[in-house]
């Protein structure tokens, strides 16, 4: 039987150093904003086999401009192979970076729940369940959400509204969930 405990990242902690390959052949470091932004939204998704992930990523694209206005960059990553990502692109309409090849060790470092496929038709590798991290300009985890299934993940409009509010200096909103 598998261990009943997983390593979890905590709000206010430093986001781990993890680099992934992205479509187009580059390597990108998760949690390192680009395009003039100082925060980054890191979305871990299950992979091409998950229709809910496809829907979520396509919906996330519609919020890209709103997130950019508040200084938040986007990257999404899965454990899929490059070939699986290429096949998935036929159902995705996104222009933010999509990473592939997330290893089991990297999934564990991120504190994601990891599942085995139900069959070879689903996918050919263990995969991370959905997770979302918002990394601030200090490389610290500002917001974190880790799920053990594809049915529970942050509603994107609420997330964008919340990040807009958090980023407003007039609100002086601290990182939440830091009580030990």
Name the descriptors.
two-stranded antiparallel sheet, single chain, Glutaredoxin, alpha+beta, seven-stranded mixed beta sheet, 9 strands, globular, about 180 residues
Mind explaining what this structure looks like?
By secondary structure, the chain is α+β, with helices and mostly antiparallel strands. It has a single domain (19-166), classed as 3-Layer(aba) Sandwich (Glutaredoxin), CATH 3.40.30.10. It has 5 helices and 9 strands; from the N terminus they run E-E-E-H-H-E-H-E-H-E-E-E-E-H. It has a 7-stranded mixed beta sheet. A hairpin with a 4-residue loop joins strand 1 (19-22) and strand 2 (27-29). It starts with 18 loop residues before the first strand and ends in a 13-residue tail after the last helix. The mean pLDDT is 92.
Layout of secondary structure:
Elements: E1 19-22, E2 27-29, E3 39-44, H1 51-61, H2 64-69, E4 72-77, H3 82-88, E5 98-100, H4 104-110, E6 114-115, E7 127-128, E8 131-135, E9 141-146, H5 156-167
Parallel strand pairs: 3-4, 4-5
Antiparallel strand pairs: 1-2, 1-5, 3-8, 6-7, 8-9
Organism: Thalassotalea litorea
Pfam families: AhpC-TSA
Domain Thioredoxin: 9-165
